[in-house]
Specification:
By secondary structure, the chain is of the alpha+beta class. It folds into two domains: 8-162 and 301-323, 2-Layer Sandwich (Ribosomal Protein S5, domain 2), CATH 3.30.230; 167-296, GHMP kinase, C-terminal domain (Alpha-Beta Plaits, 2-Layer Sandwich). It is 32% helix and 24% strand. It has helices at residues 64-76, 99-114, 121-132, 136-143, 180-185, 193-212, 218-221, 228-231, 238-244, 273-286; strands at residues 8-18, 27-41, 46-49, 83-89, 146-151, 156-161, 167-174, 252-255, 262-267, 291-296, 304-305, 322-323. The strands form two sheets. Strands 1, 2, 3, 4, 5, 6, 11 and 12 form an eight-stranded mixed beta sheet that branches. It has a four-stranded antiparallel beta sheet with strand order 8-9-7-10. A hairpin with a 6-residue loop joins strand 8 and strand 9 (262-267). Helix 2 (99-114) runs antiparallel to helix 3 (121-132) and helix 2 crosses helix 4 (136-143). The radius of gyration is 20 Å and the shape is globular. The structure holds L-homoserine (HSE). L-homoserine binds next to helix 4 and helix 5. It is found in: Cytoplasm. It catalyses: L-homoserine + ATP = O-phospho-L-homoserine + ADP + H(+). Pathway: Amino-acid biosynthesis; L-threonine biosynthesis; L-threonine from L-aspartate: step 4/5. Residues 63-145 form the GHMP kinase N-terminal domain.
Length: 324
């Protein structure tokens, strides 16, 4: 991820969906929605936002991108105290699409590129997982594709799986926000051995099915008893959608990360995409909830440095600029 034209670097990082049903805090997949971050050395720190959706996000040294950049510099033994940062994002916030993980990876990847990429992707993964406390979203955003990962508190081991070519993704993004902390607070502290075995077997089967392209197994392999049943009360309509999505053309369905977004996998060569979208939307509406449906692709690249791209995130006067 070295930008040969250094001076300024620009990275593009995908959104992600975590868990994929049973793989709680373990499985993740990157999605074709993106955040772009540009970064360069400056005399004083400024953060520019291009586009909508940044209300309430600090535009000074409290900004997450600035903070994670400093973490990278510290780890690399470099000092770059003042930065000009520009960002644009298509990833909805607090919806279960890994927006904070994407921002962390974008800040880290840009900072690392700015100083000549001294840190490996694996080191960035460990640093990012240390912040998020689980590797599923950050791993998918960093490496692209599907990630199976385990975190021991210091190190994240992972395997990247190339998504089956036929896999296409429908996400249904409710209009309301759901904080991850809230969605984690409803989880039980203990599980029965039956439920633990239920999840281990589905998660293992799902990983193997994705690895070998056995899309016919997804409907049963994406079932979960660890988090989704407890989170159902927070996402009206979720239970019915997960139960019946396969009857309307889905290969499998799950809560995306901590929610409230719902995710369905489909075979891109199948023919019932419209029926599935209509079904999911109508269930949400039965509960009085408006939701945005998006058809996405698995992203295959993860975090990339867009070398040679013309800078468009550093106009001299973007509305919202605040200097620290
Ligand atoms: N695995 C996490 C969870 C993803 O389900 O809580 C949310 O960031």
């Amino acid at each position: 991820m070295i930008n040969e034209n250094a001076g300024s670097v620009r990275v593009r990082v995908p959104a992600s969906t975590a868990n994929l049903g049973p793989g709680f805090d373990t499985l993740g997949m990157s999605l074709s929605l993106y955040i772009w971050v540009e970064m360069r050395r400056a005399e004083r720190t400024t953060v520019h936002f291009a586009g909508e959706g940044f209300e309430g996000i600090p535009a000074d040294k409290r900004n997450l991108i600035y903070k994670v950049a400093q973490l990278v510099f510290e780890e690399a033994g470099e000092s770059v105290p003042e930065l000009e940062i520009g960002m644009r994002s298509d990833i909805p916030l607090t919806r279960g699409l890994g927006s904070s993980a994407s921002a962390i990876i974008a800040g880290m990847a840009a900072a690392n590129a700015l100083i000549g990429s001294p840190l490996s992707k694996e080191r960035l993964f460990d640093l990012a997982t240390g912040l998020e406390r689980h590797p599923d979203n950050v791993g998918a955003s960093l490496f692209g594709g599907i990630i199976a990962a385990a975190w021991d508190g210091e190190r994240a081991d992972y395997v990247r799986i190339e998504p089956p070519q036929a896999l296409k993704v429908l996400v249904l993004i409710p209009e309301f926000e759901l904080a991850t902390s809230e969605a984690r607070a409803v989880l039980p502290q203990q599980l029965s051995i039956q439920d633990a075995v239920y999840n281990i077997s589905r998660s293992s089967l799902l990983t193997a099915a994705l690895f070998s392209g056995r899309l016919d197994l997804l409907a049963s392999a994406m079932r979960d008893r660890l988090h989704q049943p407890y989170r159902a009360a927070l996402v009206p309509g979720m239970e019915k959608i997960l139960e019946q999505a396969s009857d309307h053309g889905a290969l499998g369905a799950a809560l995306s990360g901590a929610g409230p977004t719902l995710l369905a996998f489909v075979d891109r060569n199948g023919g019932r995409h419209g029926e599935l979208e209509t079904f999911m939307q109508s269930v949400m509406r039965e509960h009085g909830i408006e939701a945005r449906a998006l058809w996405l692709e698995p992203d295959l690249e993860g975090a990339v440095c867009e070398t040679g791209s013309r800078s468009d995130l550093f106009p001299e006067l973007i509305k919202g600029e605040i200097s620290s």
